[in-house]
């Protein structure tokens, strides 16, 4: 039954891409919602995680799981360093979103340049050794266990992120800052600490997205920019600062890409994002899930 | 109108003298003359970006995309048998209208969302240049674009450089006239406080749309001239990096100042050519430059030196509006 095969394969691809888009867009929206930083470098951070994973797993020969944990863990001190050196300078600047945006475009340029003279020299296609061996059949559709594990991990991470934001003390403080930073400050929330935490958490989630993407698909250096743009489009449509919006729209984008790619090319899927974004902006400029 | 020209008269005369002298001085070396011509072309672009970013407070990262649409349209029309001088206004108007059409939903948004959206739009325009192969020849690009006809012969060499100088001077005169007109003052009012401007009876969205159309025309005219001057267009010629560079020239020189954009252009436009031998680290240097500008020189060179200039553009618009 080829129809069934196409259906299940499209569903699976949509789910896989949707989870990755959701993770990255959630990371971007957490950072934008708290410190008003529209991080155009999110795609480069995403790629950095994927490339670091490749180095750790292929060049150093670490076990993929160890390499993945190492990369995601390393994003924390890296984010803290960046926050210390550059990000915190702008916390009190009026209209800081423009400054941050330009700053992140500068970071994008630097990382893109570094990648092309380092990794770009070695290969134009990167592949990570599988997390685990074997294949599982979903009906007639064969899925490698490695990709399945990436999907399950992604869903678990999204669930953990929701739990953190909803139930944990820090998550509640982050959401309080999203909604009203003055009121949060009056209620004893340390706003600057929350800024720092949000920056670290957002980048951690983006890095996790990059790691999962690298396990699920082979990738090249061009993935970074398309991920940046996709994450921005998701954030604009979902409503900046809304993690629920990021995840909901991220899943829709994942399925759109899977369905459109099955019948036309991924470029057409990107055109459809633009159409959707412009349409939503005409109808509801604040985004679908904005409060 | 004459007031505006008198106010900036000395600057315009100095600029015109420099713009015409540049091609003549560099005429001995075709490579340097070409870099000079590219810088003059960039003045047209930065004049448009200066209007949009410096005065209207919009940061359109789809600027290069509009220039590209115009360039491809001009090349297409020339291939269809039109002369360059007929193709130029059609292509420029078409590109500016497409730009306004794409920017329309985003222009209704407050402040920063427009920039985000324009980045997405720029990326999609670049993708479209690659995707519609039969119109644009895809990634390969279109080469050997014929020079425009000029009094019977092809326009090239120093002649073309002088035409670009005229274009750059014309762009600066247009910028001065627009900025000093009531329309320009309304734009500054919108930039400074769009809610207040709205209360004063300014239709904010309409002002932004008009500004965006005019700024897009600058982009489009520059793009149409770029194609025959360089003789080659590809999707990479008009990607987001060009938008960023043009923005950087304005921000580096000083936003909201007439001559800041020109200073920024003169300093930055030749940079890619001078860095040609270091092309591997070009991106990194550009990134560091961007970060340096935003951290060290938030007001740009002229804005940083003369706070007066920046303040001068700010309050008169509001004051006059309140009086009106």
Automatic annotation (TrEMBL), chain A:
Q: What is its main location?
A: membrane
Q: Which domain of life is it from?
A: Bacteria
Membrane-spanning ranges: 6-33, 45-62, 68-86, 98-122, 148-165, 194-217, 229-255, 262-283
The answer on whether this UniProt entry bears the keyword Transmembrane reads: yes
GO aspect biological process, one term: amino acid transport
Membrane topology summary: Multi-pass membrane protein
Asked whether the UniProt record includes DNA damage among its keywords, one would answer no
Q: Where in the cell is it found?
A: Cell membrane
This protein's UniProt keywords: Amino-acid transport, Cell membrane, Membrane, Transmembrane, Transmembrane helix, Transport
Entry similarity comment: Belongs to the binding-protein-dependent transport system permease family. LivHM subfamily.
| Designated name of the protein | Branched-chain amino acid ABC transporter permease
Automatic annotation (TrEMBL), chain B:
GO CC terms in record:
plasma membrane
Membrane-topology descriptor: Multi-pass membrane protein
UniProt keywords (A-Z) are: Cell membrane, Membrane, Transmembrane, Transmembrane helix
List the Gene Ontology MF annotations in alphabetical order: branched-chain amino acid transmembrane transporter activity
Residue stretches spanning the membrane: 12-28, 34-54, 61-80, 86-104, 111-133, 158-179, 209-226, 246-273, 285-305
Q: What is its main location?
A: membrane
Which InterPro entries does its entry note? ABC_BtuC-like, ABC_transp_permease, LivM-like
* Location in or out of the cell: Cell membrane
What's the name of the protein?
Branched-chain amino acid ABC transporter permease
